[in-house]
Structures are given as structure tokens and as C-alpha cells.
Write a structure and sequence with these properties.
Blueprint lengths: L8 H14 L1 H9 L12 H10 L4 H13 L5 H6 L2 H7 L3 H11 L5 H4 L4 H9 L6 H11 L11 H10 L8 H8 L6 H16 L6
Length: 209
């Protein structure tokens, strides 16, 4: 099932209220992080390419590379397929990310159809493309498709934020964190937004673009 879609701040508020009732520690995080951002993005090729750009980079570095991609007019599949490797390298893409960008451009994904595709199937379709792992697929489902019950347990900022908030001895590993987050369903995407916001407060830097 597609499930609930987050389209407005009212949806965020509803999810946040539910989470604070379900887990008291979220209430302390919410008090420290008023006005959670909606973080809705457009869907489509450019957003996935942007997500690939972000992989294993700081927010500042990813923003700089993406700005160069936009300035060069290389945010559509046709432009990526027509570009020389040197053009992509000049924007800041590594050899590996050039391969990923070309694979995504040639994947023939029906982005309109993804809007009504069940979340698990969306993620399965996306991770079938080289260069798109679970994190990228989950972020796309969360922000570009607005799915309310998606989490990204492999995200280091989320792991670190949970470690601080829940006073854990270490960052929860992917599987442990995924299991932990099941208690936050059906609002796991709001839990993620709250944990990213709490990371910004606790660490004084952004954890997600």
C-alpha cells in the first residue's frame, strides 16, 4: 500500500503528536526542535541524481557540486547521456558517480507511476539501478513521494542523533535501528525529520540536505 502521504505542516504536526505520545523522549527532542521542516521535494530524475550526488559527501560539498550540475544544464537524462565524462568530472563527479548517473539516465524509470506504487516496490525498483542503495531509495520515497512511514536506518546522522537522544552506548547499527524504528510506525518519516533536527541542535551542523 501507498499509505499516508505527507503534504503539509499539518501532517507533520499530526505525526509529531503521535510520536510524542508513543515515545516520551521524542517530546524532549520536539521541545528542542520546534517547527520541523516539511522537506517535500519534487520527484523525478533530477531528485534521484541529486541524491546520488549527496552520497558520502558533506552537505556543503554536495550543494556545491549540484549547483555546478544545474549551471551546466546536466540535470536531465538526455543531458547526462550526451555529456562527456570530462564535463561531469568538471562538476565534481567521481568516476564511480559518472557511471551511476549514466545508469540512472538509461534506466527508463516511470517516475509518474512511482507516485502510486507501494513503498516497498518503489524501493525495490530504485535499488535495482546501480548506484542507488537503500538510503537513496528511502530518502526519495520519504521526501519526493511524501511517504509517511519510511525510515533510513543507514543514515549516520540519524544513528548519531538516536544515540544521543536515547542515551545509547554507541550508534545503533542498520538492522538494530530498523527494528527500533518499527515502534514509530506509521510515522517513521516524521521520526526521521525530528531526529535530523535534533542532530542539528546537538551537533550544531546539518545532517541532511
Amino acid at each position: 500500500m501507498v499509505g499516508r502521504i505527507i503534504d503539509s505542516q499539518a501532517d507533520i504536526a499530526e505525526g509529531l503528536e503521535w510520536l510524542c505520545r508513543a515515545e516520551p523522549r521524542f517530546k524532549s527532542a520536539a521541545d528542542a526542535c520546534p517547527d520541523l521542516p516539511l522537506r517535500r521535494r519534487k520527484d523525478g530524475f533530477a531528485e534521484l541524481l541529486n541524491a546520488i550526488t549527496s552520497q558520502q559527501l558533506s552537505v556543503a560539498s554536495a550543494d556545491a557540486i549540484w549547483a555546478r550540475m544545474e549551471a551546466a544544464g546536466m540535470t536531465e537524462p538526455e543531458a547526462i547521456l550526451a555529456a562527456h565524462d570530462d564535463d561531469l568530472r568538471a562538476c565534481g563527479f567521481s568516476r564511480q558517480k559518472i557511471l551511476y548517473a549514466r545508469d540512472l539516465a538509461g534506466a527508463g524509470i516511470d517516475y509518474d507511476a512511482l507516485r502510486t506504487t507501494p513503498t516497498d516496490d518503489v524501493i525495490a525498483q530504485l535499488v535495482a539501478v546501480r548506484g542507488i542503495g537503500p538510503w537513496t531509495a528511502e530518502i526519495y520515497a520519504m521526501f519526493s513521494l511524501g511517504r509517511a512511514d519510511v525510515f533510513a536506518p543507514g543514515d549516520l546522522a540519524l544513528q548519531e542523533s538516536a544515540r544521543i537522544l536515547f542515551e545509547l552506548p554507541e550508534r545503533p547499527k542498520d538492522k538494530t535501528f530498523r527494528d527500533m524504528a518499527t515502534a514509530w510506525s506509521p510515522w517513521r518519516s516524521v521520526a526521521a525529520r525530528l531526529l535530523w533536527a535534533y542532530y542539528r541542535v546537538a551537533k550544531e551542523r546539518e545532517g541532511i540536505r
